[in-house]
Each structure stands twice: as structure tokens, then as C-alpha cells.
Amino acid sequence: MSKDKLTDYDSTTASNNTDVGGISVAEGMLPSAVNNSIRELTKQLGAFADGTDGIDVLSLADDDASHAIKLQAPSAVTADTTFTLPDGDGASGQAMVTDGAGTLSWAAPYGNRNLIINGAMQVAQRGASVSGLANSPAYIVDRFSYRRTGAWSTFAATMSQENVNTNGLRHSLKLLTTATENSSDGAALSTALEGLNLQSLEYGTSNAKAITVSFWVKSSTTGTHQLSVQVDDLTNDTYPATYTIDSADTFEHKTVTIPAGSTSESIANDNTSGLDLYWVYSPIDSTLTAGSWQNTNWYNGVSGVVDLANVTNGYLEITGVQLEVGEQATPFEHRSYGDELARCQRYCFAQARYGDGNIGTDAGGGTRLRSARHSSNASFVFYQYPVMMRANPDLTFTDNSSGTVSDYGNAGGLHIYDGGDTAWYLYDLIAEAEL
Asked: Nearest Cα to 326, choosing from 96, 84, 143?
């Protein structure tokens, strides 16, 4: 067969390659024919190197050409695709992933990679909404809170769990300004991560890791918004980053990569807060420059960022929050409701809802935790929490005891003692061990 293309040549048996463009090398040929054949082969080689033409199978032979590893395109390719390989090898156990646009990178294998708890905003044990945000932190969706700093006694805003339907996510967390507040105080939506769950970041070593935060966000106001990452106990503890809202009232997916933090200071390996994310709602100062670790606070704003507390009906709404080790965002890790609830109950347990099923009601019926008699004039209520809580929780409940109750519980369970009543019950219980 006439060999007119690079792919016509035998890569393993040289003796089969005796002609160029059908002209036998052994029998001699006209110089013009040789030149034409070489020109054609050179053209094909250049096109192959440029990626504009090539072969459907790339064969990589071993040293003696006895065997080969081949990369092959599918029999029918529907669109041109260019893959860009990562620079260097990944860490042990990492896999190669794509960003959906052909850029490949090393990342942890899928599964149990999201460090955020309740990132899909499914669990809301305390209720669906709260208005007049006087306390900080304030919670609706588990593991996410409203935070403020400064002298605000009450922020005229509503925080709520919303029903949505975007990219497989059915709930979101929304903070809405109901009356504008031109204040020098800061506010944010936040989530805190326990130090015990952050040791894979390897802070305090030369192997300190970058992290990537990805999330869906919707806002009333386009422009530059701020996400601050704060790591406890570091000299340069805050990384102010920005992202852009391009279209108002539309969910957009954002990815923010945070470079490795301190190689000399570590995150405490205990049950205290190790790292916090702040979607800054109302910044103060707004003089920072984004993009570096700094000795500052989460509420100090980057120049030019939006202050939603000073926007009529301004709001910020987030869902699908994911934080993972490395510089590559992977698809959101969906967990079952049961899995997320169990993770949340380490920090908050709400039970014994007396009445219509909502914490804080007293409409009759419903679930109560009844006392067990201890002696002729004393009794106690005991309840084992579904999971061990992060620490001995703060308790809020209502009881109908005629005496004085005392808390003898711990992180494992509720133990409320009454030395003067033998038959009583409690309800509307919230046990909180938040960070």
C-alpha cells in the first residue's frame, strides 16, 4: 500500500516501510517525487503537532516495541475537545478530575469530600424563619448562622429557609433587609468548622493545602460581593476574597480558591472552631485589597463591595455550599437527609415539640418528655441524644414542674432532676453545642 500519511507507516517493523508516497526506497526515485512526499509528510506532522489533524489512536510502545499502551478516540466524536493536563503529579490517592471545560487537575476522589455540613440547607431544626435579628449568632438552617459585630441591637432583616429548585437543590438560606441600615457595623451569613475536621489541610507544615469553596448564590444586587475565610489562632488569619453577581435575582454558581495558609501555625486539633466562612452582607471600612492572607477581621470590607444592609429589599441567598481540599471544585456532594441530620445533631438537637410541631408552641398534644419517679418526692427526665454532641450543650425547654429543676446532663444525654415533684414533663427542648 502506498504510504502517504504518518499513520500508514509500521511503528514496530521497520522493514515494512520501504516506500515514500508509493515510490520504493530500494529502487530509487526522482528527487521531485521524494521532495513532494517529504513535504506532504512534514505538513501532516506539523498539523499533528498543532492539534489540527492527527490520528484516532495514539500508540505508546515500550522500549523494545513489543507491546504498547494506546489512547483511542471514540468511534464517533460529536464535538472537538481539548484536554489540558495538570502541571506535575498530584498527591498520593488523588484522582484526575475535569472542570467541565477540558482543564484537568488533581483532586481527592469523589465521596466524603465536602467539609461543609448541611450545605444543601436541608435541615432546619429550629424553624423556617426569624425576624428582627437581635442576637448573634442566630440560626435557622442548621450549621449556618447570622453573625454581626458592633452595636446593632436589632437588624431589620429576616433570615429564612427558602424552597427552591436549582441543580438538584431544593432549599436555600436567605437574608433579606426589611429596613435599610446605614451602619458602621458588620453582618454576614456564616458557617463554622470544627478543628477536628480540618487536619487534612496540614496547616503548620510545609504541606499546607489550598482549599476551594463553591456555592450557588442569588442576590438582589449585582456587582462585587465578598467571601471572607477566617482561621482561628493564626497571625494572618483572614483571607478576603470576592465574587461577582452578574444577574440580579438569578442563581449563579461561584468558585473561590483560597491558597494555603500558614506553614508555621497549625489549626488546633480539638472541638473548637478552626475555620469560618463569612458571606459578608454588610462590610465596614471597605478599604482592604482582596487576594491575600491578612491580619484583619471578617467584617472588614474589600474596596467597592456591595453593602446589602443599605439596599432597599436587598438580599443574599445561598445553597449548594461545598468546601474541599485542593484547587479544583468538584460537583456538589449530595448527602441523604438522614446523614445531614445526624451531622447537625452534634451541634443542635431539637425534640419534644409540644403542640403543632413547631418549637415554641404550646397548643396541646404533641411530644413531651415525661419524668420518671426517683423517690417519694423527686423525679427526673432522662433522654439520650441520638449522637454525642460536640460539648455539654446549653438547654432551652419548657416544663410544667411545680418545683425547681436542675441540669445534670452532659454531651451524651439530657438529665433534668426535680427534687420536689414526682410527675412532670418538659417540651420544646433545644440542646445547642454550636461553635
From this structure: 96
C-alpha cell of residue 117: 455540613
197 CB neighbour count, 10 Å cutoff: 15
Q: Which DSSP letter does residue 386 get?
A: S
What lies within 8 Å, CB to CB, of 55 at 6+ separation is 6, 7, 48
In whole angstroms, give the CA distance from residue 212 to residue 352. 39
Alpha-carbon distance of 70 to 80, in angstroms, equals 20
Residue 137 preceded by cis peptide, ω within 30: yes
Grid cell digits, residue 260:
494555603
CA distance 201 to 193: 12
Which cell numbers hold the place of 118?
Answer: 448541611
Q: Give the residues across from 302 on adjacent strands.
A: 288
d(CA 8, CA 301): 64
Q: 194-208, 256-270, 366-380: lowest mean pLDDT where?
A: 366-380
pTM of this prediction exceeds 0.85: no
Amino acid at 184: S
In DSSP terms, which residues pair with 364 in a beta bridge? Answer: none
